[in-house]
Write a structure and sequence with these properties.
Elements: E1 2-5, E2 11-17, E3 24-28, H1 39-47, E4 51-55, H2 72-86, E5 91-96, H3 98-111, E6 117-123, H4 142-154, H5 156-165, H6 180-192, H7 195-207, H8 211-216, E7 221-226, H9 238-244, E8 248-253, H10 260-263, H11 265-277
Parallel strand pairs: 3-4, 3-5, 5-6, 6-7, 7-8
Antiparallel strand pairs: 1-2, 2-4
Helix pairs in contact: 2-3, 4-5, 4-7, 5-6
Pfam families: Abhydrolase_1
Family: Belongs to the AB hydrolase superfamily. Bacterial non-heme haloperoxidase / perhydrolase family.
Protein name: Alpha/beta hydrolase
Length: about 280
């Protein structure tokens, strides 16, 4: 574990586990979480002999709670600073939710131009654009995101209980098996970060049009999405993204929620490994 200082002076926390000569798998977390959200994947890939890396986005987790730069350009540049500091090459970049947006911008603007990326994975990811616009009529209206901002500003602590208790993991669905530990861990990660970073991050993940980022990605790209994602609807994200990247594969999961990497790690991890190893993915149940 360590810190890297970006060009604009921000300290970014990162974890770097496993053999330094092994192929690196780099994980990019979602809003408003931290590198800890990848525990199940990092331990899994570490056990398979890979080098695993994850960092906390600026304003999140253990990274500096700076006032500025809570946008996709800075997120990608910060990720690039970590990759360059560790001199990672032939890396597989896996991003969840907002982290998927970070992966798309990093790979398009930094990773591929520098020759550092082997493959990319977008899991329940926000690209190409979440916001409803004239050019994106299937998106969500701005009032949805204004509501998120209002709830965060009114009581971040309560809001950060409501999200994981409800739609994030699908715990609001009839018959769902609810994990109090998962809810508390989501809350813990969220409350470690900066309220300002989280507030401004809503604009970053909802209003950033990443169509051109996706079009620029030529490395093999796997898009994974739950069909019952209540946070980032599959029809407005996963199904569109795979059509825009140059070499994409889509796998969907009936009934799976936004946070499927945590509550269905037993299914997702083998699929991630198969893609990394260039093997066929299992058929969806």
């Amino acid at each position: 574990m360590g810190y890297v200082t970006t060009k604009d002076g921000v300290e970014i926390f990162y974890k770097d586990w496993g053999p330094k000569d092994a192929q690196p798998i780099v994980f990019h977390h979602g809003w408003p979480l931290s590198a800890d959200d990848w525990d199940a994947q990092m331990l899994f890939f570490l056990g398979k002999g890979y080098r695993v890396i994850a960092h906390d986005r600026r304003g999140h987790g253990r990274s500096a709670q700076v006032s500025e730069g809570h946008d996709m350009d800075h997120y990608a540049a910060d990720a690039a600073a970590v990759m360059e500091h560790l001199d990672l090459r032939n890396a597989v970049h896996i991003g969840h939710s907002t982290g998927g947006g970070e992966v798309a911008r990093y790979v398009a603007r930094h990773g591929e131009p520098q020759g550092r990326v082997a493959k990319a994975v977008l899991v329940s990811a926000v690209p190409p654009l979440m916001l409803k616009t004239e050019a994106n009529p299937g998106g969500l209206p701005i009032e949805v995101f204004d509501g998120l901002r209002s709830a965060l500003a009114a009581s971040r602590a309560q809001f950060f209980l409501d999200v994981p208790t409800g739609p994030f993991y699908g715990f609001n669905r009839p018959g769902a098996t609810i994990s109090e530990g998962v809810i508390r861990n989501w809350w813990r990660q969220g409350m470690m970060g900066s309220a300002k970073a989280h507030y401004e991050g809503i604009k970053a993940f909802s209003e950033t049009d990443q169509t051109e980022d996706l079009k620029a990605i030529s490395v093999p790209t796997l898009v994974l999405h739950g069909e019952d994602d209540q946070v980032v609807p599959i029809d407005d994200a996963g199904r569109l993204s795979v059509k825009l990247v140059q070499n994409g594969t889509l796998k969907t999961y009936p009934g799976y929620p936004h946070g499927m990497l945590t509550v269905h790690a037993d299914v997702l991890n083998p699929d991630l490994l198969a893609f990394v190893e260039g093997k066929p993915l299992a058929q969806a149940a």
